[in-house]
Write a structure and sequence with these properties.
Elements lengths: L16 H31 L2 H23 L6 H24 L3 H27 L4 H25 L2 H31 L4 H7 L10 H18 L13 H14 L5 H26 L5 H27 L1 H32 L4 H22 L5 H6 L14 H15 L3 H11 L4 H8 L3 H15 L4 H9 L7
Helix pairs in contact: 1-4, 1-5, 1-6, 2-4, 2-12, 3-4, 3-6, 4-6, 4-11, 5-9, 5-11, 8-11, 8-12, 8-13, 10-11, 10-13, 11-12, 12-13, 15-16, 16-18, 17-18
């Protein structure tokens, strides 16, 4: 991030109009999520329980589509089109959900929840662009945590006061308001993104500036989300998540920690804290099943761990985006896709555990202990040396290649000299010349009529043989190379 890793900005970091707008947007997103769980998903459980899981999987698919569009066809992410489509989805959600509930129609209800998921994905994209405009770690964390805190204070009041119709109207109204505010943040960056080359092409030429889809970050997100999905459904009350009363105060303690403690590795410390809460909740769940008293302590601990991890996830995504704006949307898309997918898996496990607990508490305990063991095993084997801080700062700041100043008549000679010196094949030399002239992956693919993966493979071999790591380094090498002597 642009802020020094060890520097804390204090409360002044979030005492700005931009930060206040981000806080309200985060609060709006969290509030609509809380009301959806308490009202819409609870109503769906009595009509067709699978509608909830389908809606969550739709969220995963929508995030994946946004990430893929940024990687390959950024022009598809036209900000005005996204805004209009999302507003229409919220309006359609209100009509479809109310019709589905009134007429007990699973198809209408499911369609309503699905379009609501699509609109929420666009709203989150817009809002996270707002976080990207904040100055550093402290302001991003403060905005996210204070936004969550507003939800924890407001949603219990609304849950007791709103009718189902009122909740639907609130979800649609707050969602549209968040979209309109977030659009101001995302309009210019998304419009600029649409005029640039796809992130996939830049990743082939600058691999150290991007995070691979196989990175451990995404597995970690999936793992934590399984636990959070389990907590949402474990010991449900009237088909809705267990309500909490003190969670906001615990999150406030986290606010003070993030804003006051000076730590050069805030992200890793926050991850450790999340793991402790997460594991404590999973270990308490079998005791709650055995006692049969419906204790909410496991839910609270797992949910708190999940919220802390969500703050961490925002920090990582924004941190990557500050170092490479082209990696921002692909990482956001895949990370939240894994989050939604994990939540679905955890919810399915939680529902099954709830169903068997009254008749076979031993089986319910065995399921919970199995989940606990698998989580611990993954954390122990895969994440002992993993660092979120290093993940952020391991992304090399992207410098787009500048147009070469080498005379066109000398480029081929210079590339030929380097190709002969470093043993490039004939096809590699041809692609080497194209890269030296500033061409990208798409141009080379069309010029030689070969697949994108073949071009990327050739570029990888060229970089390895020449000992360069980016397109700009390759051009610098050519500019400094002597022409081949005949």
């Amino acid at each position: 991030m642009t802020e020094d890793k060890g520097k804390a900005l204090g409360f002044s970091a979030i005492a700005t109009p931009h930060a206040a707008a981000c806080i309200l947007c985060i609060a709006g997103l969290a509030l609509t999520s809380s009301l959806t769980n308490a009202y819409l998903y609870a109503a769906a459980a009595g009509i067709w329980g699978l509608a909830r899981e389908i809606a969550t999987l739709t969220t995963a698919a929508a995030f994946l589509c946004i990430g893929l569009a940024a990687q390959r066809r950024p022009r598809l992410l036209a900000p005005r089109a996204l805004l209009v489509g999302a507003v229409a989805c919220y309006a359609a959600m209100a009509l479809l959900v109310m019709a589905g509930i009134r007429w007990n129609n699973p198809a209408l209800l499911t369609c309503g929840l699905v379009v609501r998921s699509c609109a929420r994905v666009v709203a989150m994209l817009f809002v996270i662009y707002g976080l990207l405009g904040l100055p550093g770690v402290t302001s991003v964390a403060g905005a996210v945590v204070f936004g969550m805190l507003v939800d924890y204070l407001v949603s219990p009041l609304l849950r007791g006061a709103l009718s189902l119709e009122g909740a639907v109207a609130c979800i649609a109204g707050v969602g549209i308001a968040v979209l309109l505010v977030g659009f101001r943040f995302a309009r210019d960056p998304l419009a600029l993104l649409g005029t640039q080359v796809p992130a996939d092409d830049l990743a082939a030429e600058n691999p150290r500036s991007f995070i691979a889809s196989t990175h451990a970050l995404f597995l970690c997100v999936l793992l934590f989300s399984v636990g959070n999905g389990y907590a949402l459904t474990f010991n449900e009350v009237d088909n809705a998540p267990v309500p909490f009363g003190i969670e906001g105060f615990l999150i406030m303690a986290l606010v003070f920690y993030v804003l006051i403690v000076r730590d050069s590795r805030q992200e890793d410390t926050l991850f450790s804290f999340s793991v402790l809460l997460f594991m404590a909740g999973l270990l308490m769940a079998p005791l709650a099943i055995a006692s049969g008293d419906g204790s909410a302590a496991p839910n609270l601990l797992i949910h708190l761990g999940g919220d802390c991890f969500e703050v961490l996830l925002y920090l990582v995504i924004v941190g990557v985006g500050k170092r490479n704006a082209f990696a921002f949307v692909p990482v956001l898309g895949l990370a939240f896709c894994m989050k939604s997918l994990g939540t679905t898996i955890g919810a399915v496990i939680g529902h099954f555990s709830n169903d068997v607990a009254p008749t076979d508490p031993m089986l319910a305990q065995a399921i919970t202990l199995t989940v606990t063991f698998l989580v611990f095993a993954f954390l122990w084997t895969s994440f002992r040396t993993f660092s979120f801080t290093d993940t952020i700062f391991g992304v090399k700041e992207l410098e787009l290649p500048q147009k070469t100043v080498v005379q066109e008549t000398t480029i081929e000679d210079r590339c030929a000299a380097l190709s002969e010196e470093w043993g490039l094949t004939k096809r590699e030399q041809e692609i080497f010349v194209m890269l030296a002239r500033g061409r990208n992956v798409a141009y080379i693919q069309d010029h030689y009529t070969i697949s994108r993966n073949t071009v990327k493979s050739h570029i990888k071999h060229i970089y390895a043989k020449l000992g360069v790591h980016s397109h700009q380094e390759l051009i610098d090498l050519v500019e400094g190379a002597p022409a081949r002597k005949e």
